# Entry
Amino acid sequence: MKTFLALPFSVVLTATAANAQVPGEVVKAKVTMATAVARPDSVVRAAVMVEVVPGYHINDRHPTLDYLIPTEVKVEPSQYATVKGITYPKGEMRKFAFSEGLLSVYEGTFRVDVALQLGIQQPAGADAKLQRTRKVPPGEYEVKGKLAYQACNDHACLPPASVPLLFSFKVVRPGASTSRSAD
# Structure
């Protein structure tokens, strides 16, 4: 009799686990290059389009409470490009069952703008105080990054997670056209 009662209970638990969201399914991110072709010492701009599935939210870049995990675009160090700036949207103030006050969060679809300064950083010489920058040679380049976040619904939070990002661009020789069809 115990086996007979345990079987339906285990089926319910399995069905519940199968319907649970995993972090990779809750948030998607895609890089769209505003500047896919650039000159050797220019700024390459991109938009990271983020989509959070309905019923979930992720914390603002500057969360309302200190212990909340912020949403952050992280760009891996590259010898060809450095982060010039990352601009996040303002979060939406929302009330959730688990919080006493309003929390600043992102829901639905939003955009994070990223600007990468092209240039090869060289160590400062003995008499120089600052690093010197050399122009990036013509070619195809990729800079890796990730969108780090923690997704929550109205009742619970999933473990912190990240989505990989790839910033791809082409550098053309000085004086060459930077239109998308440039070689």
